[in-house]
Amino acid sequence: MKGLRTLCIGLVCILAFAGGLQAKTLKLAMDADPVSLDPQVQLSGGMLQYSHMVFDPLIRWTQDMTFEPRLAKSWERLDPTTVRFHLRKGVTFHSGNPFTAEDVVWTLERLKRSQDFKGLFEPFAGAKAVDKHTVDLITKEPYPLLLNMATYIFPMDSEFYTGTDAEGKAKDAIVKTGYSFANTHESGTGKYMVTQRQQGVRVVFEEYENYWDTDSPGNIDKIVLTPIKKDATRVAALLSGDVDFIMPVPPQDYARISRTDGIKLVTLPGSRIITFQLNQKRRPEFENRKVRQAIVHAVNNAGIAQKIMTGKATAAGQQAPEGYLGYVEELTPRYDLQKAKELMAEAGYADGFECSMIAPNNRYVNDEKIAEAVVSMLGKIGITVNLKTMPKAQYWDQFDAQVADIQMIGWHPDTEDSANYTEFLLMCPNKETGYGQYNSGNYCNPKVDELIKQCQSETDREKRAQMLKEVERILYKDAAFVPLHWQHLSWAGTEDLRIKPIVNVMNFPYFGDLVME
Amino acid sequence: MFAFILRRILQAVLVMFVISVIGFAIKHNVGDPVRQITGISVSETEREALRDELGLNDPVYIQFGRFLADAVHGDLGTSFFYKKPATQVILSKAPATIELVVVSALIIVGLSVPLGIFAAIRPRHIFSRVVMGASIVGVSIPVFLTAIMGIYLFSIQLGWLPSFGRGATLNLWGWHTGFLTLDGWLHLILPSLSLSSIMLPLFIRLIRSEMMEVLETEYIKYAWAKGLNAYRIWFVHAFKNTLLPVITVGGVQLGITIAFTILTETVFQWQGLGFLFMEAVERSDTSLLVAYLMFVGLVMVVVNTVVDIIYGMVNPTVRITGAA
Lengths: 517, 324
Description:
The complex is a heterodimer. By secondary structure, chain A is of the alpha+beta class. Chain A has 15 helices and 19 strands. Chain A starts with a helix and ends with a strand. In chain A, about 50% of the residues are buried.
């Protein structure tokens, strides 16, 4: 009996070992798994990470924020509204269908129907197939961000998604809350095919044997993705060797992971800005520029980045981080308590006043702690703040209803472009156009609006940069909002993974290029 | 018996109805599901259109009426996140929780009965004192702390046991079981020990005190006087009467255990109902939330019914059918 058991265990070990020799499997844990297999059903970080594994975009961002070819080999601007893309030949979808210009046209049409993507693709008139491997992307007006948007075009297999399924429903339907063919089937051109999926439990990706990118050094044949929502459990899984790679990494565990042998931490400065908005409609005090400036001067954001974020954040004086078009070097954080008190006195509020604040407690890194720190900092200039924090599931409704005088919001531009921050956070709120959708400070400056509208159709990079910089300067002078910091992004994995080359500030690791030694 | 079962069914329906009302009342405070299923940059008009489509803009009583009409047909709505009928999602997650609770229950029964009896028979024995002391400590440590300490010690430091999940499961006619693989059992150890840690001390103390009380009774003294075998007195005569209150408490505790699975499952990422519930709250997956509450209500009613029936078997003097 005992001999038999030993034999069995021995066999299992041999089998496991033999399997290990053949295939390199990455056990990956993220805080969430893709909500669907349909890349156009929801615009979220998790879905884009998935899209980069199973589909390929026309072009994609590199680590230094330039574009590199993927399904498009090259591209050139034909006229102010048209860019021509030359597509890679010999690419096939997972279904075996060949990839052609028609698929790009079909994909863009579907994007313009998708609830989440239609806003981003509003400037586009459509795509035109010139021949099998050439496609023109055409915008309604001259549009400077056409290439930025091309990183969101992940061509789908038009043949595979056309027609009706067994239930007689259209295969190309975009359904958010129920069954659809596209939610449960995929056919992309990406390196990985989804071979098994239990939603919320695990997704198994296996290499597509006819993948076109044979130059990539990536050598992972199989990825097992497990969503682990709880930070502590995710870190424990990495420390105990149950998984090889985790994202995101909670800041309180940075030190521990760096200390542990066989595991390494990789961080990159990110572009998600964390801010507080001062509601000028609710509080007459906030209409006074001096009060707003006092508040900005009272908030020691460098201290918060150092202490609360353990140095894994960059204190900000403006919206866009370095590397963005609108970044102005001299707009630095300006903590100065003495000056803040003077400004309060000049504004006639030497005794301060009382106001309310809300912040989420599970949306941004250490959001609740940051809010508490700011409350105590404002206390030093006589502003008594009543803080209420809540989970993100409830937060956004409260935010929209503007239930408090000071509200926290973080923002990362889908377009990777400076203008996007202002469009959503600081332009005059307008239900018709959708501008200022998250402007709960009700800051409204016609000059800023005009500059942003102008730069939307300015294709001259230099001119556009000047406008965006001008906007940042105005916002700085006006103390339109309270900037805190840009969150860093973090990943951690075992020593044998070359993580650094595949990560980027968008937080879409290119797992297809991951090398396991 | 028939009348009893019928009454229980009616009771179950009433309980489910009340739960659905409460579920609906809290549903609107959990958050906005539309927020969870759209990207942050989606315009307000698009969101409004989606709310209309999902019927979230209708008055609450209309939504509730629609929900009841569907519920009568066994349709508890569609989970936004899983994009499947909520009942289907719950049934697919139930095996994980049932297996966890069953193993924990076995651990509790397997340990508390012998330990409790021993502590009752030999109250002054050093071992009894250690057990009783340990049980005080056990009762006062919260379950998630036990779980985290377990992970720290056995997964991170020693590397003996996996830290999360269910491991390899086999599909038996739709029931994904972890009982048939070594990996599945390894994954079960820490969660089931954590879960049983909260109930085990309670049962040890309960069995001990009941047993001590029974051992003082006249009929046991008579049995000693008759010169019966000590083991027969302890395990047949005394233990049988010890069981009555234990079963009653056990039934109630089983319900509480289901509540405790929420903590245990969250810490261990154990893909069962408790974990599902937490996730549903975080994602404002409101249909799933209400469905879960109703399911748990049903389980409670069923468990209590079964406990009543067993009670009748153990103690014939309790006649459940006779009560009008």
